[in-house]
Amino acid sequence: MLQTYQTKLSNIFLNTEWTTDMYLEEYGKFFGTLERKLFVQTHIQGIPSSSLKKTFSKRYGITARQFNSIRMQLDGKVSSIFEKRKLEIQELKAKTTYLQNIIGKKTSQKELLHKKLLQISQTSTIFLKQRKNYQNLKLYLHQKKRRLRNLLQKLDKLKFNEANKRIPLCFGSKQLFHKQFHLEENKYTDHRQWREDWIAARSSQFLVIGSMDETFGNQTATYNLQNSLRLRVADHFIPKYGKYITFPEVKFPYGQEMMDQAKVSYMGVTRAGKPQKYYTAITYRFLKQKKGWYLNATVERNIPKVGKSNLNGLIGIDVNAGFLSMCEIDRFGNPIKSWRINVPMYNRRAEQVKASLSDAIKRILGYAVFVQKDVVIEKLDFSKKKIQLRESGRKYARMLSGFAYSSFNQLMESKGKKEGVRIRKINPAFTSQIGQMKFMARYGLSSHGSAACMIARRGYYFRMETPKYDTVLSLPKKFDKEKSNTSNWRTITKHLKKEYTFQDKIELLKADI
Q: How confident is the model at residue 300 (pLDDT cuts 50, 70, 90)?
């Protein structure tokens, strides 16, 4: 697993005239210029990057490793644009299809309503009500058609860029670029002041790629056993700054132990079968921020796995609006412990919600490590449901938009890898309904705790539970018990949603022992 640690670099005088910050700023600007030149030649002119390494090294005075760092950073930006465009096209296609269906249905409703209006007397109160409904429907359709046209225009533009292999990459960010057209609104006195920020944004970072066959995992930036970082100066700047710049006493507030382990060599074998000394590869990113230059070090971290045998039980998590419900089961599927953690989500910024989720997940994973159990979560894709947000009620739309499911999944996976806890994802079909009808009253669980219990049980791939036919709740009239359990649970779930409110159903099931 790759792990990144950060520390702040001190500004050190190299001599009476130059400092380390001066070199980092100058090289950051130089690095950014070369990155943009490489982008033009490789992605606009179509020249292979492999044929440009020698040319760039001789013309601009950089080493082969420094060229590779520029190329890899550029390739990362371009590949992210390609992946993002695929997702945007997929999402826009789904949105346009959904809108077209909505427009078709509403158009039919409008035509039927128009026919009714022609048959009703214009002096009646019914006519006035129906006419208002008709006008509202016309306005609704007008707005939906406008939105559909805008989405189709965006989709056509993305498809055109994809077909012509266009890469809309703005070095320095598109947001900052557009600020030059609204200087006063963005608190700029003149265009020169904006240009200073623009140049700084395009020169604020550079990458140094590491390799396992290089001393201390990186040839250009060497972090030795004395915790000093020696940075290889680009040939272009050697006459001014010398060949190396050394940062003494570089320590990481978090992750120093992992960095020290990465500096220890080990013996390996080359492809030819010869013994060779290797190190853990370390990639460094120098980043300029308000308080100075920071160093981000990315290193491979080996983490022991938790709960490998699967014989110790599992922990299921049910995500809800405002809280997480957990249930711990043994290897037979029986619940041992059930609890919940509040995660406020309403009327909060995205950063606050993410921080609350992060704290809750950290507590859950800490417990999972303590009891040596894997964690089971639902495999949910809310992208389709979010497409329907405009057509849903306010309460439902607010719930979906505030749930932060994507953040939850990302945090679970990243923190699970960090702690060595395996995160399993299961199909959540009917977990809430089965848990409420079969386990809630039996084990004294809450409605959400019983759902978490079912999620954990599904991590063991037990056979689908048989529906409880002797329940206090009414069952569908046309109900075939000979069908599969999955089919029967689908029928029961649809029926109960129509017949009962959630609270009424739970109150009845609490007494159903």
A: confident
